[in-house]
Amino acid sequence: MTTPDTPGTPAIEVAGLTSSYGDQPVLRGLDLTVPAGTVYALLGPNGAGKTTMVRILSTLLGADGGTARVAGHDVRAEADAVRRSIGVTGQFSAIDELLTGRENLRLMADLAHLPRTEAAARATELLSRFGLEDAADRRAATYSGGMKRRLDLAMTLVARPRLIFLDEPTTGLDPRSRRDLWQVVRELLADGVTVFLTTQYLEEADQLADTVGLLDGGRLVAEGTPAELKALAGGETLDDVFLALTGMEQNR
Amino acid sequence: MSTMTYAVRDSTTMVRRNLKHLLRYPSLTVTVIAMPVVFLLLFTYVFGGTMGAGLPGDLGSASGDPRADYLHYLTPAILVMTVVAVAQSTAILIAKDATEGIIDRFRTLPIARSAPLTGHALAAMVQTVLGVVVVLAVALALGYRSDASVAGWAGAVGTLLLMGWAVTWLCLALGLASGSVEAASNAPMPLILLPFLSSAFVPADSMPGPLGWFAEHQPFTPVIETLRACLDGTGPGSDAWWAVAWCVAISAVCFAWAVRAFGRARNG
Question: CB-based contact (8 Å) between A97 and chain B?
């Protein structure tokens, strides 16, 4: 199912990426590299272009200019090869509410062409990993917001992708669900999976990311480890960095 | 496995999903099939007496009872309306997928682009068969009789399915292009009106000048005439070729349009 990782190939390589919505520029020449097996957090206010970035990298949207390679493949020319390497959990729940939790997972397993017995086992394994055993045979429409989010993520993991995109994965979740999700991201990282996430929560980036990219007005205004960014703005927290750097951008 | 094998397997997976939807949302199928049944009753009992008396000689005086004659003339038209009603509901179902985010998930998977659409189209065919059986049963209960041979029945079912395939792909494209569930439920409206401007309810040559010409040449007329000929046990002649040509052409164009619209569909 997954393409073997070539040692040394970055999970994501983006150069000069531009995108616009009508005549409104959304991304204005973005460069970034995400080494395999790390967590990259794209941090930014609403409207900064985070979701556009995820949609381009996950083959949902074409860029206007620049190049983007995911798992060594060009997102435009080799979209299917990219799709074989990635899993995507978007901002809006992408589950089938008329199906049960188990059926949703089986649907993904069947589409990943897992053999029948393996598909059933994978569904059961993920239901238990995400605490959905009791609700497994209920329609997803009856799930709470947190449960839907967990099912959504479980569906993303069925095919064991080596690179996972999480677009604002904890927006709208209660603190406990948020912590559960952070735990999942750490487990993925321990398995060698690369995670690219977007967030507007500084604490989330601080907690999870190896590298944080600060996106504002379609440009990467700062990039580094959480510690480097804090040092850069001379602040105690990423909040200081965020306000200082995005404020700078607005005054320019 | 080859690309083709995967495409077939993915489509089968998607059909299973769509059939589960139909089972869990039975009110949709009931509403869809109720519409043509109501039309059948309305046109037989309210309009049937007068309309039957107005049918030209060779169509009108078969049984001596105008209402029974009109039921005979009308039934193939109502079968076509059934197929259209099912296709129209498919536009709503695909638009619902498109606004619910699951379509983005399908679009990030390494599967055939057409698989989610083929799933909808094949599930619609199952619904079509169900609808046709129910409507035929009601028509038989009202007194409709057919002289069709086995070959005639096969031709009738084949015509209905071929037309269903064509209008379903048209509705899938319309549903994806419309951008919202509300718009998707209105977009196929012309499909419900077009049969009225064909030989479905009255012979095309009874309509004035340009309207008659339009009715004679639009796709629903050869389809309905082919269906009538099959059910009456007569040869459909050139109507059958026109019906097949229209259906194949509409299917091909709308398949390409729908797959393209699927590639561009945006969530929300």
Answer: yes
Which chain A residues touch B24 with a CB distance below 8 Å?
98, 139
Position B207 scores a pLDDT of 92
Interface contacts A/B by beta carbons within 8 Å: 60
What are the backbone angles phi and psi of residue B25, rounded to the nearest 5°?
-130, 55
Contacts with B111 from chain A: Cβ below 8 Å? 111
Sequence-ordered strand ranges (E) for chain A: 12-21, 24-34, 39-43, 65-70, 73-74, 86-89, 163-167, 194-199, 211-216, 219-224
In angstroms, the Cα distances linking B106 to A89, A164, A218, B110, B111 are 12, 15, 27, 8, 8
Q: According to the model, what pLDDT value does residue B11 have? A: 94
Rounded average pLDDT over B246-252? 97
Query: In angstroms, rounded to a whole number, what is the distance separating the alpha carbons of residues B145 and B27?
Result: 30
Provide the whole-model pTM: 0.88
A107 contacts B17? CB cut-off 8 A = yes
Q: What percent of chain B has pLDDT over 70?
A: 97
In which element (H, E) is residue B266 found? none
Contact (Cβ atoms closer than 8 angstroms) between residue A43 and residue A202:
yes
Q: Given an 8 Å threshold on Cβ–Cβ distance, is A88 in contact with B111?
A: no
Mean confidence (pLDDT) of chain B:
91
Q: Which residues of chain A have pLDDT under 50?
A: 1-4, 248-252
Give me chain A's average pLDDT, please.
88
Q: What is the pLDDT of residue A249?
A: 44
Which of A58, A95, A113 minimises the CB distance to B102?
A95
CA end-to-end distance (rounded Å), chain B: 35
Domain limits of chain A? 12-251
Residues in chain A with CB shorter than 8 Å from the CB of B96 are none
Q: Do A98 and B267 touch (CB under 8 A)?
A: no
Is B102 within 8 Å of chain A by CB? yes
Q: What's the confidence (pLDDT) of residue B63?
A: 72
CATH class of A12-251: alpha beta
Minimal CA separation from A93 to chain B, in Å: 6
CB-closest option in A87, A113, A139 to B6: A113
* Distance (Å) of CA B102 to CA A62, B23, B91, B156: 19, 19, 16, 37
